[in-house]
Specification:
With about 140 residues, this protein is mainly β. Helix content is about 0%, strand content about 45%. The chain has a six-stranded mixed β-sheet with strand order 4-6-8-11-12-10, with no helix packed on it. A three-stranded antiparallel β-sheet has the order 1-2-3, with no helix packed on it.
Length: about 140
């Protein structure tokens, strides 16, 4: 299709790609259109005050030399239930504070509030469509 305005003309029980966004959808037998997990990309920045990732196009967000306090904002896009985003954060040799948007729920109970000097922090969040939250289920600091 050329855009979402064309979706009505798509037959039921069909997978299709929206040319405007490049995203793949499935129109089920009752005519309901659902976004599928799509090919994702790596989003990389050296440093940023606020990290905002697009859940439609990013499955790994990587910060390579965080040089200031970091706020991780609510992801944009239209996530689907059980979708994951991974984050990998490394500071620039100085501990940097980390704050999470309220859309993130820490199921580990002890998510770090700051980086560890020159060590990568990796964590994963899964989207829960029932609660419209990104649940942090695991994190690890490089040994």
């Amino acid at each position: 299709t050329d855009s979402s305005s064309d979706w009505g003309s798509v037959s039921n029980d069909v997978y299709f790609r929206d040319k405007a966004t490049g995203l793949v959808y499935y129109k089920d037998s009752s005519g309901v259109v659902n976004k599928l997990f799509n090919d994702k990309t790596l989003t990389t920045v050296a440093s940023t005050a606020t990290l905002t990732v697009d859940s439609d196009t990013t499955d790994l967000a990587k910060i390579t030399a965080q040089a200031e306090a970091l706020a991780i904002a609510a992801p944009t896009g239209t996530p689907i239930d059980n979708q994951s985003i991974w984050f990998r954060i490394e500071d620039d040799g100085t501990t940097r504070n980390i704050t999470l948007n309220a859309i993130f729920v820490d199921y580990t109970g002890n998510f770090p509030s700051a980086t560890t000097v020159s060590k990568k922090l990796i964590f994963a969040a899964k989207y829960d469509s029932d609660d419209t939250k990104w649940n942090i289920l695991a994190w690890k600091i490089e040994p």
